[in-house]
Write a structure and sequence with these properties.
551 residues; alpha/beta; Rossmann fold; GMP Synthetase, Chain A, domain 3; 3 domains; nine-stranded mixed β-sheet; five-stranded parallel β-sheet; 15 helices; globular
Length: 551
Amino acid sequence: MKKEKVLVIDFGGQYNQLVARRVRECNVYCEIYSYKTPLEKIKEMEPKGIILTGGPASCYEEGAATCSPELFELGVPVLGLCYGAQLMSHVLGGKVERAANREYGKTEIEVDTSSALFGGGGLKEVPAHTTCWMSHFDYISKLAPGFRSVAHTGSTPVAAMENKEKNLYGIQFHPEVLHTPEGSKMLYNFVRGVCGCGGDWKMDTFVEDSVKAIREKVGDGKVLLALSGGVDSSVAAGLLSRAIGKQLTCVFVDHGLLRKDEGDEVEAVFGEKGRFDLNFIRVNARDRYYVKLAGVDEPERKRKIIGEEFIRVFEEEAKKIGTVDFLAQGTIYPDVVESGLGGESAVIKSHHNVGGLPDFVDFKEIIEPLRSLFKDEVRKVGLQLGIPEKLVFRQPFPGPGLGIRIIGDVTAEKVKIVQEADAIYREEIAKAAEEWKKENLPESFGESREGLSVDQIFAREREFNPPWMPDQYFAALTNMRSVGVMGDERTYDYAVVLRAVKTIDFMTAEAANIPFDVLQTVMNRIINEVRGVNRVLFDLSSKPASTIELE
């Protein structure tokens, strides 16, 4: 059966991969292509629908990213988002102008509930009055022929528009971000209602297809996997192990930048006594990394150094074990988009397994079986593979490790400080979460999950946690030293910063509202137990404008 597909046409906006993620939440497969993709290629793919993303330009300026009017004559439903909506209007005979004032942030909006976008098609109903996330300088001042406005704000007369006859829709705001609470419903109504997609994109199908594709690609070759022990590389190991078994060798590079005791924990899961059918090698490279990173304080340089050394270690291990045909990595979609490789998007930061790779890699080819997935999809694949839930739901840890959780240069002393502070933070969060569960969950909590579907297990994991429980949290070390007083003596020590965020997709996030008494306990323990720290800060920043990691 041919897989139904929606195309996301990328015009260079910051949320473009997130649009794709939201579509997949509707169990609809989608792919992202640059706006420069020829119209003939788009026709050949026979999409069920097309979504035009946001972008940083003004569509009426010379040289701005654009598309052919023929795109809207294919008989395929099209939805324009922000820049995409303006471009649709501009190309089809409407008018887009500079607004007197920029509209940015959460905005009250009134929608026409008779429109298919807002539930008029009999799908998910959107309240007539809701909140949306605006981010635009330009606005649609005149609708193109055949269109009508189906939403407005106090300053934007066309916050959404439709040409029902031709199945063309535009939304001036960003339904894909969490700051638009009803946005997922709007995208669902478009892809499942207007486009008529049945929702056949499921993780069990992904596993079956991936195993088959890996076996065909690898044949009788050998694969070397960069295993960090995090969620992404662990799921990649499970997927590859199912496909090729002992043809897979996992090399775990302990670069001395891991969380406290993490190296030993990784070896316990994947080593000889573990549950995976694979070959496991641990390389202790701590001193090698510390020498390379000595005196380096610029974040991108640190990432590049860690990435290059990472590959050099793998090349050396490959030579020791004989011929290795493929290098496998746990690269996922957010890695790609933030490294500037996701269509037209700008570079945010390099990732050690994407933008941080050196130009020369001594392997035939790189295999990235999870490259098309977002974090929650990766977790679902892990459950589908039978990987223990404790590992599947582990919070993410960056490939460069504590190298990017230490502001400034990296030293053994700083690594120890942040390891100890982070261990205390994680211990107290876990303790507080368990206490909340005992007080608030029914006695049935903790019963066997046998017989539950992957989606049910995934939902329960989020449901059976305190509402404040962060999706990612860690301690980092600032490069700031300040005066303090301990034991009636003056100190001049470092400040540790605590980070905790709530997120679904790791593309947008907000600070988690951790109870103040928990934070106080963490602060007291860190200052009393971690030598070299006299101040503890809490990071309230959201993403955007910040990133989840500190560097």
